[in-house]
Amino acid sequence: MKKSVILGAATIAGLAAGAAAAGTMDDVKARGKLNCGVTTGLVGFAAPDANGEWQGFDVAVCRAVAAAVLGDANAVEFVPTTGKTRFTALASGEVDMLARNTTWTFSRDVDLKFEFVGINYYDGQGFMVPKSLGVSSAKELDGATVCIQTGTTTELNLADFFRSNNISYEPVPIETNAEAQQQYLAGACDVYTTDASGLAATRATFENPNDHVLLPEIISKEPLGPLVRHGDNEWGDVVRWTLNALISAEELGITSANIDEMAQGTENPEINRLLGSEGTLGEMLGLDAQWALRAIKAGGNYGEVFAKNIGEDTPIGLARGLNAQWTDGGLLYSPPFR
Amino acid sequence: MTTLTDPPKEQFRLSMLLYDTRYRSATIQVIALIGFMLLAAWIISNTMQNLAALGKPVEFGFFAEPASYDINQRLIDYTSRDTHLRAAFVGLLNTLVVAVLGCVTATILGVVIGVARLSHNWIVARIMTVYVEMFRNVPVLLWIVFIMAILIETLPAPRAFRGENPEASMMLGDTVAITNRGVYIPEPLFSNTLGDIHLFGDSSLRFNVSLDLMAILVVLGIGIWVSRWIKRRADRIQEQTGDRPVTWWQRTAVIVVPMAILLYLLGFHLGYPELKGFNFKGGTHLRNSLIALWLALSLYTAAFIAEIVRAGILAIPKGQTEAAAALGLRPRRIMRLVILPQALRVIIPPLISNYLNLTKNSSLAIAVGYMDITGTLGGITMNQTGRELECVLLLMLVYLSISLLISAIMNWYNESVKLKER
Amino acid sequence: MSDIGFVRTEMLPEQAPPASEVGIIGWMRHNLFDGWFNSALTLLSVYFVYKVLAALVPWILSPTWDAGSLAECREILAGLGREGHYAGACWGVINERWIQLIFGFYPAELYWRPIAAFILLGVALAPVLFSDKVPAKLLVFSALYPFIFPWLLWGGTIWGPISALLGFVIGWLVYSAVDKAMSNLVGIIAGTLAAVIWWLVLSGYFVGAMDTIAAIGIEPVESRKFGGFMLSITIGVVAIACSLPLGIVLALGRQSDLMIVKYLCVGFIEFIRGVPLITLLFVASTLLNIFLPPGTDFDIILRVLIMVTLFASAYMAEVIRGGLAALPRGQYEGADSLGLNYWQSQRLIIMPQALKISIPGIVSTFIGVFKDTTLVSIIGLLDPLGLSNAIRADANWNGIVWELYGFIALLFFAFCFGMSRYSMYLERKLHTGHR
């Protein structure tokens, strides 16, 4: 009698959800929407605003890819994923790409069969403590209670760090950043540990940010980057080079302000190749010539995206640090567009 | 449905499978079985294909690999070098702890509140009604995170205990510290300990049984048995002579005296919590996550149990109360001797399903970071190894076994109190 | 004659009862201060209520409705001279986000659709729930409603739900034809097969063809856009509606004399009831796609709907089994004696009565499922609780706790309390009618 609700729903939703075939790019184009996995909410990286529009640093990557492939930076469906559900969502084809501050590790790349297309943020696990605690090094934390966000590599790094330094601690695993922050501020834990960017972002929103310090130890390398499914290299290339286009744009001085002017053609052949006024790079990717132009226009170059979402002028106030261009002493180094 | 008369020696025809009620049921069953097996085969073959495509064949070998994460609350020894299986075992014990604690507290609270709702005191009855409606109509997950937030925000942090004029101080003569990291209570210690028995060698299921605890349990058991024997003897004497000998001091003594001697021999003393470094050290640490989960599950389930108890009491005809009153029993004895034993028969079956619900709801521990089996096996282990199929199936199997065990025990108890109908 | 009389001939006027036994004082003596124990309890309770109110009321009365961020709230409160952590609530977050908490990310210009869907739900349920006040003809609408509801929420072409409905019609036609020609059992099998073939194979062509002829439809909305209370209610309603027929089948199976069918049903019911919902949601989020043919991919909300439906159907089966068991044996025997076959007697005699008795149980199952929908936040769906985490990740509202939880709890309370009151009313009504 009422069994058909599910069938009705299935038919209708079935229209929207196609089968995950080999060609992700064709799927995306056919669908007219990019399905992009993001976090369920992390300040500065991804969170919905009052109108339900997603904003943030990771979100900008999704928008750039959508702009490059579909020509519309808003043609993105954001799929919030937790630490637990993100890999299944990607593996099952529910999302086309994951831009969810995910650490590039050997086992995720090789064993879980994913393809990390690059690094959009170099991070590392750090510690935040209240100044009043009088601690200046993580090695003085013997017996401390440590709040950890679960579902990440964080808890493994932490266990290794304390074990190798032979000091004891009390882990308090917590699902979301908001709750970890609440516990830390109330003093239910002495230390909060997660990626240094997350710590800085969290600290920035405190009533009195200056009462808290980040300890100098960075106990792990956390290269965060977008990832796609293994085995679909065309799609992987599109996402990889969209990210590289954003990074190169900053290096080459292309900003959202001067991009239209530069797209007319410049003296620099690499800019011309990137923006499509010269060469056939877009065609090689299976896109049109203006793909990178649109991707950069969506939110600006890497530097602009950074400054707008997590940079020093935002409440989060992260310095570029490792994430500066290689020319400025950072690690961002995009392969050439040639 | 069976037909009474069988026509003799009728030739079997194929159509009889459909039209003859003797064979039709077999036909239906065979069809159902084939359908079910086809469905199962379809799912299994899909799974095999999908897993092959993902490159993740089903195998449980990863359980023997080191878990590499730490667990804060562990009833048995565990380090991050232990295996995933060990971590799951630690989680299972944590699940059982919170389930047992929750069931006991919920029952006590539920009975008190259920009776209080029927109180003549207007304001008490109203408050209890508000309590029941408040807890029944808001999701338990919300209560869990809410109570956790209350614990964290309103209780003092350990650093508030420090300094010349601390903002907070320990309670009960400096023996109990209530902080927003949990409650620290004195722990029992034995200076002449008997040691432990190590079960299962070095395997992941190794388990230490404290001989001290066993000795205490044995002495307590013998004491209670002797005490009951004294009571039975007193009953016999009362029946024969009409006089009941005064036995209360004998009955207390046979329990208390041997216990006191044993505790003295074992060198029993209490270890008190002390503020050292970042945290309180010593004593037993009941973590916040355990308390929040325990409280939330107990309060939530107590609201349901209260309703069951109330319904059970109201289901007893008023004549029973009146007849008991006519016998000269006082109200409290009427409740204890007449109403509750009868109400129990109505109460127990729904009580079983509430215990089951509480146990299953304990899986929401994940919301407050209590490391139960969902947090270890279904949480970090699943997340780190990427073996969803194996972890989820095992998780289901564990919960299913716990549920079946609880229903078996409670059904057995229900049988024993059920009205013996003749 | 002396006028000394020993017997009073006229009645004395009635005296007013003592002041301590009537009016407010009497009521208080009886209900509040009846003995020392009760008096102590009363005083304790009054003190408790006072403490709770004294803590809550000043916090709730906080003029922060228009604040745009937590910092702004703190400024407003500091301006009033109210300092400290619990100076007052920050209602700005509710003002800014309440629409999101209710509708999720559903397009704002289409809000009328979920609203209409839920109002029509009331209309469709009216003939079932208030059978004495509403004309029974509305039942036709109730039968059609399961097709209207998803169409309104998800949108898309109108031919989808029509085609789904056609499946039932075709199944029924085949069944009645075969039933007459051959036998009841073959009829049921053939009817089911015909319907399944229609849905799986032919329906797609039909919808495509009709769409090219006459494209009638409304803007489709993907289930991803569902969030907040709308998501909770949708999951609850769909799960209960779909689990009802499943539950009936399972309950009948469990009561059946056919051993294999019985054990299959018992096994399914006990399995689902023995595991926590969260593990089933893990299946939805991580395993369901693995169980289906390679390449199948439908979105997470649909997968959650499937698993919650299976979950609810086991509980529904037990509720309906209770209803079946409550029917007097004579009803079954009466049906048999009229010569009705199994399905006829179920359809005409047993089920109408059993279902009616089961309505309160069904309502409380619904309340339970509705409350349990908050669990989907654990697998990353943005139900009210999941959204509250997302909102707290917004830089403006980072640090908000109680306001959001309070608001969500209040809405859940209002909904569940209303339903449970209705269920109790129904129980009382049925109690007199069916004994």
Automatic annotation (TrEMBL), chain A:
Keywords from the UniProt entry: Signal, Transport
- Name listed for the protein in its UniProt record: L-glutamine-binding protein /L-glutamate-binding protein /L-aspartate-binding protein /L-asparagine-binding protein
What are the GO BP annotations of this UniProt entry? amino acid transport
SUPFAM superfamilies for the chain: Periplasmic binding protein-like II (SSF53850)
Which species is the source of this protein? Ruegeria intermedia
Keyword Signal present in the record's keywords: the answer is yes
**Superkingdom of this protein's organism:** Bacteria
Q: Which family does it belong to?
A: Belongs to the bacterial solute-binding protein 3 family.
What residues does the Solute-binding protein family 3/N-terminal domain cover?
A: 33-262
* Signal peptide residues on this chain, from the entry's feature table: 1-21
InterPro entries xrefs: Bact_solute-bind_prot3, Solute-binding_3/MltF_N
A Pfam family in this protein?
SBP_bac_3
Lineage runs: Bacteria, Pseudomonadati, Pseudomonadota, Alphaproteobacteria, Rhodobacterales
From TrEMBL, chain B:
Task: Please report the organism this UniProt entry assigns to the protein.
Answer: Ruegeria intermedia
Record's protein name: L-glutamine ABC transporter membrane protein /L-glutamate ABC transporter membrane protein /L-aspartate ABC transporter membrane protein /L-asparagine ABC transporter membrane protein
- ABC transmembrane type-1 domain ranges (all copies): 92-410
The family database entries (CDD domains) matched by this protein are listed as: TM_PBP2 (cd06261)
According to its UniProt record, where is this protein located?
Answer: Cell inner membrane; Cell membrane
Membrane topology per record: Multi-pass membrane protein
Statement: the UniProt record of this protein carries the keyword RNA-binding:
no
- Which Gene Ontology cellular component annotation is one that this UniProt entry carries? ATP-binding cassette (ABC) transporter complex
Domain of life from the UniProt record: Bacteria
| Family (UniProt) | Belongs to the binding-protein-dependent transport system permease family. HisMQ subfamily.
- Gene Ontology MF annotations: transmembrane transporter activity
| PROSITE patterns xref list | ABC_TM1
UniProt keyword list = Amino-acid transport, Cell membrane, Membrane, Transmembrane, Transmembrane helix, Transport
Gene3D superfamilies in alphabetical order: MetI-like
- Locate the transmembrane regions by residue number: 23-44, 87-113, 134-152, 209-227, 248-271, 291-316, 392-413
Automatic annotation (TrEMBL), chain C:
| PROSITE patterns in the cross-refs | ABC_TM1
Its membrane topology is listed as:
Multi-pass membrane protein
Under the GO molecular function aspect, what terms does this record hold?
transmembrane transporter activity
State where it is primarily located: membrane
Q: Which InterPro entries match?
A: AA_ABC_transptr_permease_3TM (IPR010065), ArtM/GltK/GlnP/TcyL/YhdX-like (IPR043429), MetI-like (IPR000515), MetI-like_sf (IPR035906)
Report the residue ranges that make up the ABC transmembrane type-1 domain in this protein: 229-423
- In which domain of life is the source organism classified? Bacteria
Does the UniProt entry include the keyword DNA damage? no
GO CC term, one of those recorded? ATP-binding cassette (ABC) transporter complex
Q: Where in the cell is it found?
A: Cell inner membrane; Cell membrane
Q: Matching SUPFAM superfamilies, A to Z?
A: MetI-like
TM segment ranges: 36-61, 110-129, 136-153, 159-178, 185-206, 226-252, 264-288, 300-320, 357-382, 402-420
Give the matching Pfam families.
Answer: BPD_transp_1
Keywords attached to this Swiss-Prot or TrEMBL record, sorted alphabetically, are: Cell membrane, Membrane, Transmembrane, Transmembrane helix, Transport
A Gene Ontology annotation in the biological process aspect, one of them, is: amino acid transport
The record's listing under CDD domains reads:
TM_PBP2 (cd06261)
Q: Which family is annotated?
A: Belongs to the binding-protein-dependent transport system permease family. HisMQ subfamily.
Name of the protein in question: L-glutamine ABC transporter membrane protein /L-glutamate ABC transporter membrane protein /L-aspartate ABC transporter membrane protein /L-asparagine ABC transporter membrane protein
| Origin species | Ruegeria intermedia
Q: Give the classification, highest ranks.
A: Bacteria, Pseudomonadati, Pseudomonadota, Alphaproteobacteria, Rhodobacterales
